[in-house]
Write a structure and sequence with these properties.
- This protein is of the alpha/beta class.
- Helices cover 44% and strands 14% of the residues.
- It has 17 helices and 13 strands.
- Strands 3-2-1-4-5-6-7 form a 7-stranded parallel β-sheet, with helices on both faces.
- The longest helix is centred in the first third of the chain and has 18 residues.
Length: 411
């Protein structure tokens, strides 16, 4: 395989919750595109997906670098040094009005990245999330470095703290900006400048349909699975309350919550308060193989997503994509791109946001209607094959990368 001309710039790599990033990079490598990975921070101490063993890319951690060489590159008599200093000064003056609290540190990262990209021959950088990593990629480009593109997801575009002017600048300077569902496109059209919006393209996150597929293992009866980080937007407290309603109705069930996060204590307290500790199992974070086993055994998947107090929400929950690919009937809410996953209710049930009673009704109805579960299983798998095949998504993204590489590097 030839030397990488494409790099990924990520806040942390690997991250257990960002399976879509790992899957995308592996698919790019599988297609023959070598990549280099810049991780701005070391990874957290958490389980690792077995698929990491297939990764061929070098992972370089920026936070471990303390060299002054990138700064010294601006000072000297050569024309390129004077040009870099002029560009740096112009960017500092322009972006200081954004009041971004981490801008000084990001400038330092950008200078280091600029030097490393030149040393490695990197011509294009792709970023996930329109946050600090995307801002850093923009700084690198404006300092004379490689072009960049980014994928916008959810928290990076929906939170009330998002600076629309800065986001517009980041998107407008990109070669292209991917976002992962049509709902995001609609939101961005109301947020971004007209020039920035011209750079936006929708491309669904893909999943590995070979790895995630219906299992021959018999499914449990009355088993509710929920997979996601234990954070506000996933709606776990709503599910706990829905399960409490099922118990009051005398509906037998057990539930498995897979994930870890800042709201674990709150969720555990709620489970204890309604007396369901014996019926709800919290596994903590699991790798993809273990999640796949859970999806092969459960009766239904329920993820009653909500919009957080700060505007944060899910755009295209990976666990729902994986569930429909596994033939596991799903229940969720009409938040952002979820109706696109569930085809507007044709391959799963959509219930109102923050509605435990409606969520309980949906779970009970699927428990009691095996034929509906089987219809959803068949339709869900076909829907995943049609829209969410990782190989198709990777092929499209690679074409966009190659178009960037084919452009003359004039900055």
């Amino acid at each position: 395989m030839s030397s990488p001309r494409i790099a990924y710039l990520l806040k942390k790599f690997p991250r257990l919750s960002e399976t879509f990033v790992l899957n995308e990079i592996l698919m790019q490598e599988r297609s023959g595109l070598p990549v280099h990975i810049f991780s701005r921070r070391p990874p957290d101490p958490e389980p690792r997906h077995p698929q990491l063993a297939d990764l061929r890319a070098t992972v370089e951690y920026l936070s471990l670098q303390q060299s002054l060489e990138p700064w010294l590159a601006m000072f000297g008599p050569r024309p390129e040094q004077r040009q870099l200093l002029e560009r740096f000064g112009g960017l500092v003056r322009e972006l200081s009005s954004s009041a971004h609290p981490r801008l000084p540190a990001l400038f330092a990262e950008a200078l280091y990245l600029l030097a490393r990209c030149r040393e490695l021959g990197i011509e294009h950088v792709h970023v996930h999330f329109a946050t600090d990593s995307a801002l850093t990629a923009m700084l690198v480009r404006d300092l004379g470095g490689p072009t960049y593109s980014l994928t916008a997801h959810a928290k990076d575009i929906y939170r009330t703290t998002v600076n629309a002017q800065l986001l517009s600048r980041i998107v407008a300077r990109s070669e292209f900006t991917v976002t992962v569902c049509d709902a995001n496109v609609r939101h961005l059209s109301e947020t971004l400048s007209k020039d920035a919006m011209a750079h936006v393209r929708r491309l669904y996150n893909g999943i590995d349909l070979v790895r995630f597929r219906p299992s021959a293992t018999p499914r449990d009866e009355g088993h509710v699975l929920s997979v996601g980080r234990l954070v506000e937007k996933k709606g776990f407290p709503v599910l706990v309350d829905a399960l409490a309603i099922l118990r009051e109705r005398g509906v037998p069930f057990r539930a498995t919550f897979v994930g870890e996060g800042e709201d674990r204590k709150r969720i555990e307290d709620r489970i204890a308060a309604v007396g369901l500790a014996a019926q709800i199992r919290l596994t903590g974070a699991l790798d993809q193989d273990a999640v796949r086993v859970e999806m092969g055994r459960a009766t239904v998947m329920c993820l009653p997503c909500v919009i957080g107090d700060d505007g944060n929400r899910d755009a295209l929950p990976t666990s729902l994509l994986e569930s429909i690919a596994c033939g596991l009937p799903c229940i969720s809410t009409p938040v952002t791109g979820i109706p696109e996953i569930l085809a507007g209710g044709k391959v799963g049930l959509l219930v109102p946001e923050n509605d435990p009673a409606a969520t309980a009704d949906a779970i009970q109805s699927l428990f009691e209607d095996r034929s509906q579960r089987e219809r959803f299983a068949t339709a869900g798998r076909a829907h995943a094959e049609h829209l969410f095949d990782a190989e198709n998504s990777a092929r499209t993204l690679r074409e966009w990368f190659e178009n960037c590489l084919a452009q003359p590097q004039t900055r």
